[in-house]
Amino acid sequence: MMLRVALMLAVIGMYSGALSAGETPAPENAYLYIGWPNDGEVIHGGRPFRVWFGLRNMGVAPKGVDAPNTGHHHLLIDTDLPPMDAEIPSDRQHLHFGAGQTETMLELPPGTHTLQLLMGDANHVPNNPPVYSKKITITVK
Amino acid sequence: MQIRALTIIAVLAACGAQPVSAKTPAPANAEVYIIWPTDGTVIRGGKLWVRMGLRNAGVAPKDVEMANVGHHHLLLDTDLPPLDEIIPSDRNHLHFGGGQTEARIEDLAPGKHTLQLLLGDHEHRPHDPPLYSKKVTITVAP
Question: Do A53 and B101 touch (CB under 8 A)?
Answer without folding.
Answer: yes
